[in-house]
Every structure is written in structure tokens, then in C-alpha cells.
Amino acid sequence: MFTTENITFVLEIIGTVAFALSGVTVALDKKMDLLGIIILGLSPAIGGGIIRDLVLGIHPPKAFQNPVYATVAIMAILIFCLPRVLDFFAKHRKFYDSLMLVSDAIGLGVFTAVGVAAAFHISEEYSMFLYIFVGVVTGIGGGVLRDTMASVDPYVFVKHFYGTASIIGAVFCVICWRLLGESTAIMLCTVLVIVLRLLAAKYRWKLPKPQMPDYSTGKLKRKSASQYRKKN
């Protein structure tokens, strides 16, 4: 029988595997050894959930209470790192890139919805802001940890419509929760975030990037804020 708890658990497993693979991608690009690959794969797979539980006051976080999430993530990482698997992806680079994009989108959608659900399960008396915040931090928190440890600019701050998709999905989930019920809200939120993320990647949707004006030459030439700070 498909209960809400079963659906949520299945989605969490799917999201865990999806985000683990996204971590492996970054680790391979950084030419890390097997331990580094496992750690960087685990970061997005369970990192967002750990941050979520700390915010909600769940001690110890569920990732440590139930090792199934970390176990599944490590198994997925090890399978992905098999020589034959890596050789296959090396020969089919376009398929590999597409798989990583889809995996990242699935992870973002699943964990955004699961984060909102976790907050609602603690109490339905919280403010809307908390539900949205917990959903977003669950969706993007692990990825920020992954990118920080890999010494790269966090994906959420520089790539097209990543964090924004999570925010929209979390808001949508909170609204649907009271109108359509828990299961429907979780599924619709997951699908919405995945679709937004894939469309953003396809059509290069981006938020505006304000730049600091440069009046030093007498011309209205714009430069980035980081360039301005370096000069001053």
C-alpha cells in the first residue's frame, strides 16, 4: 500500500542517489581519489538533510539515525566509479552530461519537497517563511557543501535558475499542502522544480547580474563588484 511515508521514503532514496552522482561528477573533475569521491558524493546526498534537521531541532539528524541513506549513496558512488562504467561515460560524453543534469534536477526537486514536508511534520503552526526556508536549504544545502569543499563557486550562486527553482517549488509546495494535501503537494513540487531546472538549463534562464559602474575613465563602463573591490 502506498502511504505518504512510503512515497516520501522512495523519493528520498531517489534524491540521495541523484545528488550522490552529482557529487561524484565534481570529484572526478577535481581528480580526487576514491575517499575524496565518496566524501564529495555524500555531501550533497545527505548534507542538505543534516542542515534541515539541525534547523528543525532533530538530534541526531536522521542521516545518522538511519544509515540507509548514506549506505545507498556510497553504493551508488562505488558502482559509478567502476572502470567499465567510467569507460562507458567517457565514450558517451553527451549522455553523461545529460544524466548529470537530470540527476541534479531530480535531487533538487525531491529534497526541496521533502524539506517542506519535514517542517510540516514537526508542526503545522510555523510561519510560511520557515517552511520555505527549510525546503530550500534541504534542496541546495548539500550542493553548497560539496562545492565549498571542492573549492569551486557554489553552483547555486552562479548557475542559471538553480536556487530560484527551489524557492518557487517550496512556495508552491506550502500553498498546495493546505489546498490539495500532503502527497499531492510533494509530488507536484518535485515535478515543478525538476521541470523548471531542466527548462532553465535548456533555454539559459538567468537572473540579472548587477555590475558596479566605473566612472574613472569618464565613461559609463560597468565592471563587476569584485573588480571594484580589488581596485579599492
Number of strands: 2
Which term fits the overall shape? globular
Radius of gyration: 19 Å
In terms of DSSP E residues, the strand content is under 5%
| Poorly predicted ranges | 228-232
Q: How many domains?
A: 1
Q: How do the strands line up in the largest sheet?
A: 1-2
Helix content, binned percent:
over 70%
Order of helices and strands: HHHHHHHHHHEEH
Give the structural class: mainly alpha
SSE topology:
Blueprint: H1 4-29, H2 34-56, H3 62-65, H4 68-80, H5 83-91, H6 93-122, H7 128-149, H8 155-158, H9 162-180, H10 182-203, E1 212-214, E2 221-223, H11 225-231
Antiparallel strand pairs: 1-2
Characterize the structure shown.
The protein is mostly helical and about 230 residues long. The chain has one domain. It is built from eleven helices and two strands, in the order H-H-H-H-H-H-H-H-H-H-E-E-H. It has a two-stranded antiparallel ribbon. A hairpin with a 6-residue loop joins strand 1 (about 210-215) and strand 2 (about 220-225). Helix 1 (about 5-30) crosses helix 2, helix 6 (about 95-120) runs antiparallel to helix 7 and helix 6 (about 95-120) packs antiparallel against helix 10. The longest helix is centred in the middle third of the chain and has 30 residues, at about 95-120. It is globular. The termini are far apart.
